[in-house]
Amino acid sequence: MSEDELPPVVRGKRGAKPSGKPTLKTIAQMTGLAVTTISRALNNAPELAQETRDRVQKIAAEIGYLPDRAALRLKTGRTNVISLVLEPDEQIYGFGSSLMAGITEALRNTPYHLVITPLFRGVSPMEPIRHIVRNRMADGVIFSKTESFDERIRFLIDNDFPFVSHGRSQYSEPHPSVDFDNEAYAYAATRRLAQKGCKKVSIVLPESALTYAEHLRAGVIRAANEAGIAYEFSTDVNSFSPSDALRNYVGKRARRPDGPDGWICVSEVSALAVLGALNDAGKTVGQDVHVVTKQSSPMFDAFQPSAETVHEDFVDAGFHLGSILLRRISGATDDLTYVAAPRIGWRE
């Protein structure tokens, strides 16, 4: 029997609680395999039989084995950690949890673990990135709210540190990224509102520094010009503004004689504020005015069936973020970008 073939577990040892912290040697004693084979099995080495890997990993889980990350980092320079930087607000409507679900699926059957690094209010977005890189807290990092010329991207490229951004930048150098085609979304939404008879459309854009704000703007302008209708962009507020500020702005515009009769929203949260303001202004959505919004949660339809929606799949985005980052860590340099096309399916 070769070393890579797993013999029966040593009788009387499996299931017995090991004394002290379980190690690779503990598992080796329980299986009769060499420590190097145990290490390869836990790291899913493809040259080992799947049955061997599964059984070793099962025993490791049963006895509570955890790798010594400090020793791993000293030996290999790796931590087997992926860091996802999230702001507290990014948990709204499950954005963060959806990304995490997709990323963890991409990390399934790999030695990597996902760790959340919080970005607190009032703290520069660069702070957690510098901390991760300088202290080698992870093998790669994922972050969102990407700006056109994002200093995080510049810093990570200059330090040759693996990363993938949720959102694109305008740097001439290609870099790993995952995005939703917001220009295509805004174009389709504007065309839809024109089809519904709208004469002027408005969109509450995200913060102007974010790359996708410009993508949305370009889509609205192109479609409105083609359809021969007017358009406007929000002033004084953005899609991340407090709901009260959004409702106040939209309410004032809706009450004016030159107010928009079509609204485009970039998230469910901002859409709820827009719809509430239109209702307060005495407008009937679907008759007096029309609304199109991006949607990521099925809950939205239960509350606002009068708005038309285009789905943005954050679980899918998370999966691509994780997959691309793993490829970047392994040394790949090509095909490290992904842009999801909106799936348009308007109501009859």
Note down, in words, how this protein is organized.
With 348 residues, this protein is of the alpha/beta class. The chain has three domains: 22-66, 434 Repressor (Amino-terminal Domain); 74-174 and 313-342, Response regulator (Rossmann fold), CATH 3.40.50.2300; 180-309, Response regulator (Rossmann fold), CATH 3.40.50. It has helices at residues 24-31, 35-42, 50-63, 69-76, 95-107, 126-134, 151-158, 182-195, 211-227, 243-255, 268-280, 299-303, 314-329; strands at 81-86, 113-118, 140-143, 163-166, 177-180, 200-203, 230-233, 262-265, 290-295, 308-311, 337-340. The strands form two sheets. A six-stranded parallel beta sheet has the order 2-1-3-4-5-11, with helices on both faces. Strand 8 (262-265), helix 11 and strand 9 form a beta-alpha-beta unit. Helix 1 crosses helix 2, helix 2 (35-42) packs across helix 3 (50-63) and helix 10 (243-255) crosses helix 11 (268-280).
Give descriptors for this structure.
13 helices, five-stranded parallel beta sheet, six-stranded parallel beta sheet, Rossmann fold, 434 Repressor (Amino-terminal Domain)
Overall pLDDT score? 87
CATH fold node name of the largest domain: Rossmann fold
Helix content: 40-55%
Please count the helical segments. Answer: 13
Provide the gyration radius in Å: 25 Å
Envelope shape:
elongated
Strand order of the largest sheet: 2-1-3-4-5-11
Q: Give the tally of structural domains.
A: 3
| CATH superfamily placement of the largest domain | Response regulator
Low-confidence region ranges: 1-18
Reported CATH architecture of the largest domain: 3-Layer(aba) Sandwich
Region (Disordered): 1-22
Organism: Devosia equisanguinis
Protein name: HTH-type transcriptional regulator RafR
GO molecular function, one term: transcription cis-regulatory region binding
